Amino acid sequence: MNGTKFQVKVWKYLQTIPKGKVKTYKQVAIGINRPKSARAVANACAKNPYAPKVPCHRVIRSDGSLGGFSGAGGIKTKKKLLKKEGFLL
Fold this sequence. Notes:
- This protein is mostly helical.
- It has a single domain (5-84), classed as Arc Repressor Mutant, subunit A (Orthogonal Bundle), CATH 1.10.10.10.
- The protein has helices spanning 5-14, 25-31, 38-46, 74-84, and strands at 23-24, 59-60.
- The longest helix has 11 residues, at 74-84.
- It is globular.
- The N and C termini lie far apart (30 Å).
């Protein structure tokens, strides 16, 4: 993977989120031992060139909303990927 050390750390963590499950940006930040870095996690997700193989679509906002998706098709694709994996929106 090509990216900053932080981005690669986030992207590797995203690969541990099972299909049909989601985590919040804050939960990912805690998971990589950077609990105050939720916004940086969101930025790393936005820069993910490996989507959907590296599943940034499985990361949502703390309020339960989907947030963004930088892959082709944007938020519509994020919804479609989550539904396909069995996550109820």
